[in-house]
Amino acid sequence: MNTATLFGLCASMLIGLGLYGLLTHPHPLRKILALNVIGSGIFLLFGAIAFRGAAAGMNADPVPQALLITGIVVAFSASALAVALLLRLFEVTGDVSLANEDPAAHKDTSKDRPHD
Amino acid sequence: MSLLLNLWTILAVSLGVFFFLAGTLGLLRFPDVFTRLHALTKADNLGLGLVVLGLLPQMNSIHAMLKLLLIWLLVLFSGAIVSQMLAQAARSGEIDS
Amino acid sequence: MTPSLALNLALALLLLGMAGWAVLVRSTQAAVIGFMVFGLLLTLAWARLDGLDVALTEAAIGGGLTGFLLLGAAVRLRSVEHRATLQAPGLATRILAALAAGSVTLLLAFAVLTLPSPAPSLAPAVAENIAMTQVGNPVTAVLLAFRALDTLLETLVLVLAMLGIWSLADDRVWGGRPGFAIAHDASGILHYAARILVPIGVVIGGYIFWIGADDPGGKFQGATLLAAMWLLLVLAGLRDAPRVSSQALRLWVVLGPLVFISVGLLGSWLAGSFLGYPQGYAKLMIVTVELALLPSLTLILGLLIMGAPKREIGR
Amino acid sequence: MTESPASLLLVLAVLLPFTGVIFGLLIGGRHVRTVALTTVALGLAVIGGIVWHALGTCSGSGTAIEYVLGGWSPPLGIRLRADGLSVLMLLAVAVVISLVSVYAHADFAPHDSGKETRAPLVFWLMLLAIWGSLNLVFVSGDLFTLYVALELLTFAGVPLVALDGRGETLRAALRYLLFALLGSLLYLLGAVLLYGAYGTLDIQLLSQVVRPEALSWAALALMTVGLLAKTALFPLHIWLPPAHAGAPAAASALLSALVVKGSWFLVLRLWFDVMPNVVTLSAAQLLAALGAAAIIVGNIVALRQLRLKLLIAYSTVAQIGYLFLMFPLAFGLAFAGMDSAPALTGGMLQTISHALAKAAMFLAAGLIYLTLGHDRISDLRGVAQALPMTVTALALAGASLIGLPPSGGFLAKWLLLSAALESGQWWWGAVMLLGGLLTSVYVFIIVVRSLAPAEAGWMPKTRVPQYQQMAVLALALSAFLLGLAALSPVDLVQLGRTPLSLLRGTP
Amino acid sequence: MTHALTRFVLFALLWLVLMPSLLWYDLLIGLLAVLAATWVSLRLLPPTRGSIGLLALLMLMPRFVWQSVMAGWEVAWRAFHPKMPLAPGFITYPTALEPGLARNTFTTLTSLLPGSLPCEHTRDGIVYHVLDIHQAHLEQLAREEQRLADVLPTARHTP
Fold this sequence. Notes:
The structure holds five protein chains of five kinds. By secondary structure, chain C is an all-alpha fold. Chain C has helices at 3-24, 28-48, 52-76, 81-86, 91-113, 123-133, 138-146, 148-166, 189-211, 219-235, 247-270, 282-306; strands at residues 177-178, 309-311.
């Protein structure tokens, strides 16, 4: 088995692992972490594809590699925003649960102010 | 000549790996967080140093060698800082062994 | 089995093991530490895949900054850890999730095995055109010439994420400083480390930034190192986090995107196309953009870690 | 290929709003609104130029507007490309953005003290960012640039959801963000596979080389699922109602009318332009089945809501369903060798009329809340007295959602319905009619309740400025009169597009 | 001024090790980075008080590198020894060095010594964790302090 295929298969499994974590963990921080594992898997897959594209004296296709750098930076910004949101949620509510608030909250109570 | 240099590389890198192994063994065998810190920092410092020394003749220029030495020095310094921070944290009970 | 294959196989297994640990282990802090180790291993994988630029970025941002960010959050959320894990899903959900994840993995594995051979590649097209960009590193040529629009948009992504994080501030402390942890022990070891390491980091960061034109490295990697130095200064209490209302801060933050757009417009005037470079001036324009991006990226990456404004503006 | 200096307008349509964000952030303080409104005015001129240019070529050669960035042509470089779909969406979004800006003028005014405050800064900058990201989605011709555009759109939307700062809006924002991030990652995964298979990310080039094989199918499936999560198509809709209902009115209008359309538009691009020969009719049927479920479930849940804003949010869930009915209709027609253009035009009209009508409804709900101090549907009396124009707008927008003539919704449903009958898929027609019926029930309830006279001596809580009401009415009127587009001599939708049956090759 | 110059030269050497190019634009960027580093360094570590001669410190380096070799060897020996000979404990070393820069330099250097690990600064001195409490650690630390004080005459308290 060659390097690209090996890491491509590894990436497929990483994506599956991350997806499982994302679907089963109730803790939002674990979900963010799982999203990062999925992201790393996708990047690794793209890296394997870039490696397959070695040509013209280059060891790998530089276009996917450049896109990957962009992708890593974008993924980091997403994590930073998600973490900040999570910490703020914790600060305001003292909890990090993502579960639907109880149905009573859907009823109008005069104390809340949805917009102004 | 190059055979001799390769031999040196193999020898030094193997020795380096041996010290990494020693550090890991210490990490597993030693009784508490302080002794483990000894194992981790001191053995790995030496391990890294030997690996760097081993790789030196493989570099194709003087400045690549200097760069490698520089990396070693920086790691040495950071390792010294981090081990002190961890030891302080352990001493004040912020982390538990 | 060749040694190279054995090494790859070991690396792949370690990666899967660490990812599995990060996903499955019970404690969030342990999971994050697992993820950081995973990031380090990933760096090795990138080196095996001949992606040194990517390896550097992954080590700096993917493993380093993300790990730091998640670890900080895990420590802050320690008190609700127990409650958050109470609502663990039932067996049925787990089985369904495993089925979904498993089928995606199978689908992807199948796709990987059916990828065409020889692989399509843009490497020849890059090789043909790289001379016109006057930079030696093909990845830099893609990032700042062929697909410069993506890079421009990426800086805007960073600005928006920063604004999004700032927007989470309480109204009363708007304009204030992020509540980043600060140790005010002037004789402490962190203080000491910051004072010695930061200047060295500045030289190395400058080098990584500059080498990017011809060798692996570049503005993102350099900026990450510089941002880490800045965070070290703030963590050690040598410098306070900046006020988000500071005019100077904002100027430095938008400098990069603004220069990038201006250079793009200049291109549409001089070279007949937005983000185009006139013959012979490509490197000059690319360097101008990169130089302007470096301080902006450094600040934004640092600010993304520091979080929303928390403290009132002291007068 | 048309690359005239006018094509540079495509670049400006994307970058002008973002330049506004940069200057808004830099100048900040009390001037952010001025910067934003100036940018909106300039942006309108740019979009106007694009539309004018498109109409010019439309009567002539009928090709799309293209711009190759930096002179590096694809596959190495990136090109921007605006066909009829893009131009229409650019125009619709520009109209909604400018009218929402007018409405928000007072809501997000600078603080009296002259000090910078959080909400106005965030609102105005994110309004511009949403605009720029959407324009990028419409004109980008590259799958990776589109990924960045999707992320930009998410990052611009999330702060608006959480603008209010209460715990429940933060929770809604975090849920939205997690959904959206998974969605963009799946999209990216599909794009990666396509690059691995065909070595390009350019939409035009890809459409010429993509083959109906397992790899393309996997990519299409992954990308579609990801985009559906971002579009909030049933059953991936659960994040939408709390996120859209919890934001301030002007922000809700942007989120519900515009932001979800970005990812929807990408599904359209993928299915109709990138991989029409990979799509199977049964896959399109599945998509429409989800749409039908969204229509039924969304409308029924909407009917059971007690608060106006939540009702409108659930109505969005239902209306998103309509946007997916066009897929089997268009492909059904193309498979049968018939002209699929009416189905596509119908779908586009549906999107645009929903954008206009939904923005009008959320803004109207905002005014009603200000006037009454609450938005309980059971207690809307007095509204018509205090806000005659707003209730008219609500009724007109409702009429467009239901599909009464001559509204845009009517023309859209008319086109889709005839496509359904023509392609022998009457069941989708039945779903549309049932959906219209359910919609009419809640629109009727809202309007009738608002018409009830107030108690003697009741005074509105706040006096709403006249121009806000006029902005809402203008939105609703545009939705209502959109049906007159049928009288237009040119079908802008088809500008620069190859008929689907040709792209698929003759069956 | 001499301080600034010394640091400038040191950082310039660092740059040249990293990027041994004499092309004018490479040197220009290097100059910018080195100037920035010198400026940052002067801000962070003003040369007026408790000044550490960086050059003098570098002279001490080889000795401590050698110490760290011995330290690694010692730990490896203990880790591999079947009986694992350990007698761990804490000792307090009463130092005359000024708190802050001088003392931290001392602990950082001595953290490389065999068998000792600095863990805490107290009023009585520096607390070290040692692997073998019976060894003459205090004497060795005193020798190292003397060496440090020899190259940095200002580092000690004036008694």
